[in-house]
TrEMBL record:
This is Tafazzin family protein. The lineage of its organism: Eukaryota, Metazoa, Echinodermata, Eleutherozoa, Asterozoa. It comes from Acanthaster planci (Crown-of-thorns starfish). The gene is LOC110984180. It catalyses: 1,2-di-(9Z-octadecenoyl)-sn-glycero-3-phosphocholine + 1-hexadecanoyl-sn-glycero-3-phosphocholine = 1-hexadecanoyl-2-(9Z-octadecenoyl)-sn-glycero-3-phosphocholine + 1-(9Z-octadecenoyl)-sn-glycero-3-phosphocholine; 1'-[1,2-diacyl-sn-glycero-3-phospho],3'-[1-acyl-sn-glycero-3-phospho]-glycerol + a 1,2-diacyl-sn-glycero-3-phosphocholine = a cardiolipin + a 1-acyl-sn-glycero-3-phosphocholine. One of its GO terms (molecular function) is 1-acylglycerophosphocholine O-acyltransferase activity. Keywords: Acyltransferase, Lipid metabolism, Membrane, Mitochondrion, Mitochondrion inner membrane, Mitochondrion outer membrane, Transferase.
Length: 263
């Protein structure tokens, strides 16, 4: 079911007040996330330079896609690991599809998340809904879009087929995006997925950034073979899924080692 008009307020051409409000929102939440991630808890990142270089040094026309697992509603706080100097910069701040049934139930929720560069999507409405078009338009402009391709908080941490929207975004971007996967653990300890929803302190959080994925050859072969758009987006998403399996095992070993060394 499409979004109601009041649920999608992101302007096509943002004015001065929207830009100021958005920057204020992003900087404020970025500072809070950084404090909570690094001071209130024990964050350990691996290969963070890969992410920093992609955010800060990629060419202006090169879009960036990041993909990661989703285990807690606090997962967006992971961006507190980014450097302060990039906070609020349009080219260095991620856009992200967000579930409308959670983030768009009240009007002030809509503005809060939209000013923070969240793009409301309707789960179940498919890869061709308008918000996905907006995500791809951001890529056309060289922006950064983050996807949680599991499509929801994975409370049981079970194997889930990734949603194909990210595959469509990669395939249809005018400039091939730089795609960086990551896997993280510990955020569900910071904010559990059950009541009472009270944030905790002193928890260990581990984040492993993977190597950038190059889809150039895969896309070329798929197009030369005359594959349909559905087949293409499925194959590209499958490549990400395979990388997730590898990253998951490595991240779990790194996270486990932190507990072993402290005993």
């Amino acid at each position: 079911m499409p979004l109601e008009p009041w649920q999608f307020v992101i302007p096509e051409k943002p004015g001065t007040f929207w830009r100021i409000g958005s920057r204020f929102m992003i900087i404020g939440t970025g500072i809070i996330s950084r404090i909570y991630l690094n001071w209130a808890n024990h964050f350990q990142g691996h290969n963070l330079d890969i992410l920093y270089n992609a955010v800060e040094k990629r060419p202006p026309e090169r879009p960036l896609i990041t993909v990661g697992n989703h285990i807690s509603c606090f997962d967006p706080m992971l961006w507190g690991t980014l450097k302060m100097k990039g906070l609020g910069h349009p080219h260095k701040t991620r856009w992200c599809p967000i579930a409308s049934d959670i983030t768009c139930t009240k009007k002030w929720h809509v503005y809060f998340f939209s000013l923070g560069q969240g793009i409301p999507v309707v789960r179940g409405d498919g890869v061709y809904q308008h918000p996905m078009d907006v995500c791809i338009d951001k890529l056309h402009k060289g922006h950064w879009v983050h996807f949680f391709p599991e499509g929801k908080v994975n409370m049981n941490k079970e194997f889930m087929r990734l949603k194909w929207g990210v595959g469509r975004a990669i395939a249809e971007s005018r400039v091939l995006p730089l795609v960086i996967p990551f896997w993280h653990l510990g955020m569900d300890e910071v904010l559990a997925n059950h009541q009472p929803y009270i944030p905790k302190f002193g928890k260990k959080i581990t984040m492993l950034i993977g190597k950038p994925l190059d889809f150039r050859e895969a896309l070329q072969h798929l197009r030369e073979e005359g594959k349909s758009p559905l087949e293409i987006r499925k194959k590209l998403t499958d490549i990400i899924q395979e990388e997730f399996v590898v990253l998951k095992a490595k991240a779990e070993a790194l996270h486990k080692a932190r507990f072993t060394s402290s005993t």
